[in-house]
Design a protein that fits this description.
With about 140 residues, this protein is of the alpha+beta class. It has helices spanning about 45-60, 120-130; strands at about 5-15, 20-25, 35, 40, 65-75, 80-90, 100-105. The mean pLDDT is about 95.
């Protein structure tokens, strides 16, 4: 029997040289770890539409989904997780925590202080090199 493959999306949102991170609920997988917000597509939803919906549902924001930044993979038990990271821009200002316990705008110097979920930690060094993170 083949392994399960789970494709998910995540948003790389940078504002004024700071990256948006959201902290997972304690009872979730990787509880209290920090992540780039996103989620799983539903039905025949495109990955871009998935990311817009997840950002609206989880953070109460409207976002513009831009180009693919990178793709990371990791094994979770019998599942291969494929995370597609998109460069995104917030079109609204306020953030409402609906699925997370906290959020933070983090400079590249502060990133090591945040315990990131495993898949997000794979790409953080690449994110730190983005021109938008240079302040």
């Amino acid at each position: 029997m083949g392994r399960n493959v789970l494709v998910c999306t995540a948003a790389v949102i940078i504002r004024q040289g700071r990256l948006l991170l959201a902290q997972r609920k304690e009872a979730s997988q990787f509880g209290l770890k920090w992540e780039l917000p996103g989620g799983k597509p539903e039905g025949n939803e495109s990955l871009e539409d998935c990311l817009k919906r997840e950002l609206a549902e989880e953070l109460g924001v409207e976002a513009e989904v831009g180009e693919t930044f990178t793709v990371a993979t990791m094994n979770l038990n019998d599942t291969k997780l494929v995370m597609i990271f998109y460069l995104c821009k917030l079109l609204t200002n306020g953030i409402e925590l609906r699925e997370h316990v906290n959020y933070a705008w983090v400079s590249k110097e502060e990133l090591p202080k945040y315990g990131l979920a495993p898949i997000d930690s794979i790409v953080v060094e690449q994110i730190k090199q983005l021109p938008q993170m240079q302040t």
